[in-house]
Each structure stands twice: as structure tokens, then as C-alpha cells.
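Example (one chain per record):
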Amino acid sequence: MHLDSTTLATRAVWAGEHADAETLAHASQIPLVRSASFSYSDYDEWLAVAQGTRPGHIYSRNTNPTVAAFEEKIRSLECAEAAIGFASGMAAISNTLFTLLAPGDRVVSIKDSYGATSRLFLELLPRIGVEATLCDSTDHAQIEAEVAKGCRVLYFETPTNPTLKVLDIARLAKAGHAAGAIVVVDNTFATPINCRPITLGADLVVHSATKFLGGHEDAVGGTLCGSRSLVQRVFQYREITGACLSPDTAYLLLRGMKTLALRVERQNASAQLVAEFLRSHPAVGSVHYPGLTDDPGHEIARKQMSGFGGLVSFSLAAGTARVGPFLKAIRLAHCAASLGGVQSFIGPPETTSHVECTPAQRAALGIPAGLLRYSIGIEAPLDLIADLTQALDKPA
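Predicted structure:
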């Protein structure tokens, strides 16, 4: 069966799960191959593999059977031609940008990207002579105008981290291609279950696989998907930087991804209920969730997403002074800097998404003080709401 013709839920289970010729494995699970190198008794066969004229593996910094299975699974889910794994999400993002951008180039992006990504644009890329222009995430016309001035890369995430703004992928991809730009989308928050940017015109898609893809908070990894030619360029850069995905991590990610569709569908439904509850509670100020009909990104999200995601961000009506006591009262969420797992996580940007940034930088990037990012796990939503209720109702 050609798996790319099956549903996403089926691909999450079966894609990449073929018998491995190198290890002669015919098990129900992809084997964990820890070997650093792969030997050949026949020189001509070895040379053919080294030159890429026949399949095989030479050295695990470049390719590995277990990692290849992970890459095939995410490739299929993202409807891409090719995919490669990385040691982390930031390794995927930084290797992609440093591959595509050179001194004198220009990149256009948005202000409220993940904090480490923002630092690439604000500090590291300018050091090598790359101009970075960051736009208001809600102003598509401004982004289009900046892209039209000329740029090598248009990069954005949607929904954004942590304000959950939604950008129109098809509209911006059209603008990027009209200017000759390569369009790169961070799809970590949406996951391929909710959105597939390549089908909407993006050239490349990046993920922090640590988050929803793995789903169990025990594996740090990243991935890049897209056209074969562009992915190959980044692969060659990754060979030199050495930011490869380990086979142990790939094995854990493969295991986690088999339940990706089930987990995301549950998280979508629970996040909707939690967002509606938070909006109705008098102790809550603002609530950001694209599933709310009055959310500024709702209409775009309805158009390009099949689910609104498992994250909600909100602020407390009493302001930042209440953040500490509120977090201390929470029982069914880890106060930790991660998201997308089977257990819920909660925290403010200064300790999670934008810990690398100063207060002034966070303000300039449009990250409000006192905002809380709440990643909904697979717990019963009524239990999460009861936990939020008791924490919100505690006296100041």
C-alpha cells in the first residue's frame, strides 16, 4: 500500500515502519541501531553507497536506519518530498537559516517567534551580514510589503509561541514566491495533524520534535521537511555542523508519533473547553486561542487548520503579582519549559519560550508581561478545569 494515500492517523502508525534491510529486521517495531559506522565486504558496493547510487548507510552522523525511519514518518505526515532529523528543534531552525542565508541577504520574519529563534534574527544572523526584518504578526500587509522589497527567506511560525497568533500560510507563501523567497514555516504548535504548510505553498517546514511529535518529554529532537533539493542542501550543511539526530532519540520519537493523531485530537478538544472556561472566569484577563470565535486568528485558522491546537495562553486579571501564587496553586500541570506532552505544562515567557530574552527584548517582540502559556495534555479536561478553578479562586 502507498501510505501517502492513507489517512494521517494511519500514516502516524505505519509510515517508515518497513523491514530494515541493513539489519534484516522483520519485527513489529523499528529496531534501534546504535552502530556509529556500517561495514562492507565488497568495495564496489561500499563505493556505490558512499556515492549515493544505491541505498545504505556509511556513518551515523550522516544517515542511520532508525533515524531514516523517523524521517520517513514525518515526511509522509507533512506531505513532503524529503525530511531530515536534527539534534533539536533549534538545530533544525539554525541549520536551515544558515544554509539558506549568506552575507548581504535579507530575511523577513515576525516579532513574536520563539525566543531562541528571535535571537537568531536579532543577534546571530546580523553578525554574518544578514539583514533581518521582523514584522507585526497580525499585519499581513506589512509582511507582504517587506517581502516585496526583496528577501532570500520568509520565515514564520503559526500559531506563534506564545501568543498563538495565526498567520495565513497560503497568502504569505504567494507573497514570498512572488519575491523569489524561500518560505519556511515552523509547524511545531499545529503539528501535521492540524496543518500541513507544504500543501498551502510553504517550501520548508521545521519542527521541534521534542514537543507534540514525541509527546512524552523524554526525547529532544528536531526535523526539517520539504522539497528534495532544498532538504539536500540543508543535509549537506548538517553533515558539517554535526547536529544529527541520535538513533536512541529517533527510536523514542517513532514510538511517540504512533499516537500523535490520538493525542492531538484529544488535546484539540480539551484546549477548546479550557479556553472557553478561562474566558468566562472573572479572575482571568485575556485569553488567546484560535478556536475561540472572537479570536483575531479564528477565521484564518478555520481555513487552514483541521484543529485549533493544544495550547492556550492567558493573563490574570490581577496582573503579574498573581502569577507566582497562581502557579504555586496549580496541581495538574508541570511548571516547566516545555509543551506538547501527555501531561500539561504551564509557565510564563520569562521562564519558558523567551527565557533567553531580556524584559526589554520581550516587550519589543510583543510578548506581554504576565502572560501564561498553558499546554494541555491528555488528562480529562474536567479535571484540568477543576484544577484551574481552585488555583484561580484562591484568595490573593
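Caption: Residues 347 and 372 are 5 Å apart (CA to CA).
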